[in-house]
Design goal:
The protein is of the alpha/beta class and about 475 residues long. It has helices at about 15-30, 50-65, 75-80, 95-105, 125-130, 150-165, 180-190, 220-225, 230-245, 255-270, 275-280, 405-410, 415-425, 435-455, 470-475; strands at about 5-10, 40-45, 85-90, 110-115, 140-145, 170-175, 205-215, 280-290, 290, 295, 315-320, 330-335, 345-350, 370-375, 380-390, 395-405, 460-465. Bound molecules: 6-O-phosphono-beta-D-glucopyranose.
Length: about 475
């Protein structure tokens, strides 16, 4: 495994939710795995008056809370805590950056990473003040959390302004779905095996389904979510990235630009959905009160901070198509939503029916093959094939070949942030979104948002704890298809 060189990582928003819940526990785990070099420092910054001891105590509290009990070890913690430091910085106040300079000193041989786990409104200010304080150089890296803009124009503005300070190869745009183990396994499956590639095309694939379903609601983030909605929050980034990896041509290498060039081609090949096409090929939903896992939950409009009669969608289903030789005419059905029946993220490849069946009804009908790539909750893959049922009669039965990653590799799968943070520290950009990908994704999504706004109707209501509005099933049934778990 490639060693990580000495580093210092500065986390803006160091006492915020993302840092406490995901980033610092992820760094602790990598430390515990012995993957971080001795000379690796972690500096949290925040506006609040805190000193190093207090910050370390806060980080310890959240590591104890968010890590499984058997992973928190007092001795390991003590050595991890030595890496931690704190600098009080008000992101919008140039003068306060001297606190950070004092804390950091000269970078020397260490690579310097700035992780902006803050509101995107602060991104440009932070980068400018860092530069002004002389804290950046050609070797520093900056990590940006989504949302990277609210639409194409704002994404361009942020990117251009940050581009004045950091070159593109210094910018790590996080889409944490790309750090999920199964997404990388999809790359391994497609390009590490000769078996699938010949089948991975319109001649053999009937449709592709990508579902990211959540059981949670807006989790106290309604102020943000109500201005965002499912299309911007999930489809524009996570689902389109999954689609790009599923549909891309084989890259010439795993090199950052080889992979990102291929993903970009897919995003640019998405057939535009505008006006009536957008309305016809998409479904917007919003949950009303219901029950999730047997627990009653309020409707979206009853959540705190949601504006009365809000039309923000908490569910989106879309039928996308690609204008390429490989995929022409193959529907890519995408759906995502909050307060759905299960927490589930998966990519389903539905293959075509056999061209000619030698079995008649007596033997049981042959069902098309299906490959299910499961990102969460239980990571793995299932290939559904037809087999003969035991007995002296010839009867067909669908069975699945299961690959459960946890069971097969007998080792804990790294969390997406562990993977992405170590990639940043190693300077590997493959799993981060390039600027042109970001723009291409916004270019496709924006006309859909416009069409929704112009039509002006309310999203379709669905009961919390179901699979979304009935129109989502109808989107597929009119093509003679059905969502995977409903079939
Ligand atoms: C985030 C969205 O990007 O992804 C959230 O902003 C969503 O609304 C989350 O809940 C889902 O991530 P995961 O890894 O829990 O599926």
């Amino acid at each position: 495994m490639e060693e990580i060189s000495p580093f210092e990582i500065v986390i803006f928003g160091g006492s915020g939710d993302l840092a406490m819940r995901k980033l610092l526990p992820a760094l602790y785990r990598r430390h515990r795995a012995g993957q971080l070099p001795d000379d690796g420092r972690i500096v949290g910054t925040a506006r609040s008056a805190m000193d190093r001891e207090r910050y370390i105590a806060e980080v310890e509290k959240s590591c104890r809370r968010y890590l499984p009990a058997d992973e928190f070890d007092s001795e390991v913690w003590a050595s991890f805590a030595e890496r931690l430091d704190f600098a009080r910085v008000d992101a919008t106040d140039a003068d306060s950056y001297t606190n950070l300079s004092d804390c950091l000193g000269e970078p020397g041989h260490r690579s310097r990473v700035f992780y902006l786990a803050t509101s995107p409104k602060l991104f440009v200010d932070i980068c400018r003040y860092l530069q002004h304080a002389g804290l950046t150089n050609r070797a520093s890296r900056v990590v940006l959390e989504k949302p990277l803009g609210h639409d194409l124009a704002s994404a361009q503005t942020i990117s251009e302004q940050i581009g004045e300070i950091f070159a593109e190869d210094q910018i790590y745009r996080i889409d944490h779905y790309l750090g999920k183990e199964t997404v990388q396994n999809l790359i391994a499956l497609r390009f590490g095996n000769a078996l699938f590639e010949p089948l991975w095309r319109r001649e053999w694939v009937r449709d592709v389904q990508i579902t990211v379903a959540e059981q949670v609601g807006v989790e106290g983030r309604a102020g943000f979510y109500d201005n965002t909605g499912a299309l911007r929050d999930m489809v524009q980034n996570h689902l389109l990235q999954l689609l790009a990896i599923t549909a891309m041509e084989p890259p010439t290498s795993i090199d950052q630009n080889a992979v990102r060039d291929e993903k970009l081609k897919v995003l640019r090949a998405l057939l535009p959905l505008r006006g009536r096409d957008a309305i016809h090929n998409t479904v917007r939903g919003q949950y009303r009160a219901g029950a999730v896992d047997g627990q009653p939950v309020p409707g979206y409009l009853e959540e705190d901070d949601v504006v009365p009669e809000s039309r923000t969608e908490t569910f989106a289903a879309l039928k996308a198509e690609l204008g390429t030789w490989r995929w022409s005419g193959v529907p890519f059905y995408l759906r995502t939503g909050k307060r759905l029946q299960e927490r589930l993220a998966e990519i389903v490849i539905n293959f075509r029916q056999v061209p000619h069946s030698i079995f008649d009804g007596v033997y049981g009908a042959s069902q098309p093959n299906r490959l299910v790539i499961r990102l969460q909750p239980d990571e793995g893959m299932k290939l559904y094939i037809m087999a003969k049922a035991p007995g002296d009669e010839m009867r067909l039965r669908p069975v699945s070949l299961d690959l459960d990653f946890a069971e097969t590799f007998k080792q804990r799968q790294a969390d997406a942030y562990e993977r992405l943070l170590t990639d940043v520290l190693r300077g590997r950009l493959t799993l981060f979104m390039r600027r042109d990908e970001l723009y291409a994704a916004w270019e496709w999504v924006e006309p859909i948002l416009e069409a929704w706004e112009n039509i002006g109707d309310a999203p379709k209501s669905y009961t919390a704890g179901t699979w979304g509005p009935a129109a989502s099933s109808a989107l597929l049934s009119r093509d003679g298809a059905a969502w995977h778990e409903e079939s």
